[in-house]
Every structure is written in C-alpha cells, then in structure tokens.
Amino acid sequence: MEFQNLLIANKGRVQQITINRESKLNALNKDTLAELHSAFTEAFQNPEVGGIIITGAGPKAFVAGADISEFAALNIEGGAQLSRTGHSAVFDLIANGSKPVIAAVNGFALGGGLELAMACHIRIASDNAKMGLPEVTLGLIPGYGGTQRLTQLVGKGKAMEMILTADMITAGDALQYGLVTHVVNPEELLTKAEEILNKILSRAPLALAAAIRSINAAYTDGINGYETEITEFGKCFGTKDFKEGVAAFMEKRKAEFKGE
Ligand code: COA
C-alpha cells in the first residue's frame, strides 16, 4: 500500500511505521489519521508482521499533536465527530490490536501525539523527548483518549497536573511517572525498540494477543478483567503453541511457536 504521510519498512517480523510530515512536526491531519487506520489494519492482518514500531520522521518530533489548522472550521458536532472517529479508527484500533505496538518517542509528543503514544502497548523515549497534553492552551481538552489513558498510566494526580497546567515533561520525568519504560540516546532509540519487540516476538503469538486483551480488560467499563483473564487463560490450553511451549520446556530446547 502507498502512503503520502507514512513510511513503512519491514525488518524480519518487525514493521516500522514512520509518520512523515517533518515540516509540520508530524502533526496528525485527517489524511495522516486515515493512512494510520489503513496501515495498522493491514499490519494486524498481515501474517508476516509480528509487531509494530511507530515513530516520527526527523530529529525533533514524534508527533506535535493533531493538526491545529484543521480545527478552526469545526463546531460542536464536528468536534465530537472528529474525536469519535479518531478514537475508533486509530487510537482504539491500536490499543486493542492483537499484535504488540511500541511507540519510539523521538522528540515532541504533544496532544494527539502523546495520545498516539499512549494508545500503543509500550512506550520508550529518546532523552531529548518532551511530552505533554497542551490542549487547554487552545481552549480544548484532549480528545483522542488522553484524559483516560494518561490517568490510567500515571494516576489521577499527575494526570490532573499535566492536563490542567498544559506543561511538558521531560523524558526523565516520563520514566519516573511510568509513562515510558526506557529512556535512551536518540541514536539508540530504534535499536532499543527493536530489541524489546524482537524479544516479545520470540514468545507465543496467541498468548501475546490474549495478554493484551486481558490487560486492556482492566480498564474497560462493564467488563470484569478477572473473568476475561480466566477465559483467555483457558483458551490458551487449546492452542498448538501451548503444547509446543510445554514440550520445549520438558525437552530443554527453545520453543518454535507458529501462532496456532
Ligand atoms: N498542528 C499543525 N501544525 C503544527 C503543529 C500542530 N499541532 N505543531 C507544529 N506545527 C507546525 C508549525 O505551524 C510550523 O509550521 P510552519 O513552518 O508552516 O509555520 C512547523 O510545524 C514547525 O513548528 P514550529 O512551531 O515552528 O516549531 P518550534 O520548534 O518553534 O516549536 C512546538 C515546537 C512543538 C513547541 C510548537 O510547534 C507547538 O507548540 N506546536 C503545537 C503543539 C500543540 O499544541 N499540540 C496539541 C494540538 S491539540
């Protein structure tokens, strides 16, 4: 598939998606969001892709937010529609994806950019990264899941302070808050993301998907996460990968998982 605003590169079972609007600090306009929907849908369906790394083009930004120039014409209904479509087409699509997605945050991750990183399953950052949800400076609030996912990741007090002050935090702060799990030099960022993802991809694929569903259930209204875990745990026993994993352990060899 050809994209105007994304670069796609495959290395083994790792697919790297790079948001490529460097002159606008990779801001998410409608076209880029539509392309992200297509790219992630395709990556989740493609059996040759095991997991995805998402990053931003250039040395300065992961994503500096939703494209503010597209906001001016919106009214109440248009704003709500933009938010609702974004949630389902991109942010929830990634969060509920059956394959692991790592955000490699290589600079500014602001507004919709931080929301995109937070929709991913794991976030790592370069030491020059800056993160924040500055929407209240525009008379808005985060609209792509930020009020919910930031609260889940860092707790209510820190989320309140970050969203109400609109302040950016450093990569070091983000590490301390648990918003990212590793901070490295910019040159090492993608290598580190690949290292983590390749380790994950050596594990049983159906178990990874079951783990993502079960962890997400902890934060899904109306669902008992413990019940989800019980069901998903049970289903794992019906997979060939489970039989292979146990056999490999008993035979003291490396498991060869097929995702079946
Ligand atoms: N939407 C649209 N365009 C954006 C953008 C966004 N969220 N963020 C940056 N850009 C554009 C700028 O308008 C500028 O375009 P131009 O060269 O055509 O004028 C270009 O990207 C470079 O940005 P600039 O502001 O010149 O870079 P900077 O280094 O001075 O500042 C930031 C960097 C990130 C602090 C600043 O761009 C900024 O505050 N961006 C908006 C962040 C934001 O509020 N995001 C939340 C949106 S809901």
Describe the structure.
The structure is a single chain. The chain has helices spanning 30-45, 76-95, 112-119, 146-154, 156-165, 171-177, 189-201, 205-217, 225-236, 240-250; strands spanning 6-11, 14-19, 51-56, 61-63, 101-105, 108-110, 122-126, 130-132, 169-170, 182-184. The protein has 260 residues and is α/β, with parallel strands linked by helices. The protein has a 6-stranded mixed β-sheet, with helices on both faces. The chain has a 4-stranded mixed β-sheet with strand order 4-6-8-9. A hairpin with a 2-residue loop joins strand 1 (6-11) and strand 2 (14-19). The longest helix has 20 residues, at 76-95. The mean pLDDT is 97. Bound molecules: coenzyme A. Residues 24-25, 27, 64-69, 108, 110-112, 134-135 line the site of coenzyme A.
Give short descriptive properties of this protein:
single chain, 260 residues, binds coenzyme A, globular, six-stranded mixed β-sheet, 2 domains, 2-enoyl-CoA Hydratase, Chain A, domain 1, alpha/beta, 10 strands
